[in-house]
Amino acid sequence: MRQYKILLQKFLRNSIYNFRIQNRYTQEKMAELLGISPRSYIEQEHGKYGFSALSLIFYLLILSEEEVYVFLEQFRRDLEQADEESHELL
Predict the structure, then answer these.
(1) Which residue of 18, 40, 45, 78 lies most exposed, with the fewest beta carbons within 10 A?
(2) Could you tell me if 13 and 44 are in contact, meaning their C-beta atoms sit under 8 angstroms apart?
(3) CA–CA distance from 40 to each of 68, 70, 73 (Å)?
(4) Contact call for residues 60 and 68 (beta carbons, < 8 A)
């Protein structure tokens, strides 16, 4: 189960970072959108801490319906790939 948590945190961090860059948002703007402090956002973006479930929900709320679908579909593919790789090791 821990591997899924790590995978989700990495995936979420990359997704939020890419969203911020694509929309030309500052770290401060993303912190505001996610309802967290700028310092907290910076530490989370750099992997010091993981994004919370609440941050995930706020992130999904700022995405369009299509973007939410793409986000979930990509995460599903990443999970399947991780499962395949773990079975290959056995």
Answers:
(1) 18
(2) yes
(3) 24, 26, 27
(4) yes
Query: How do residues 8-53 score in pLDDT, each as one tens digit?
Result: 999 999 999 999 999 999 999 999 999 999 999 999 999 999 999 9
Burial class (CB in 10 A: 0-12, 13-18, 19+), 67: middle
Domain residue limits, the chain: 2-89
> What angle in degrees, to the nearest 10, is found between the helix axes of 27-34 and 53-62?
100
Contacts 24+ apart (CB under 8 A), 14-19: 15/59, 15/71, 15/74, 16/45, 16/51, 16/55, 16/59, 17/45, 19/59, 19/63
The radius of gyration of the chain from alpha carbons, rounded to an integer in Å, stands at 14
CATH number of 2-89: 1.10.260.40
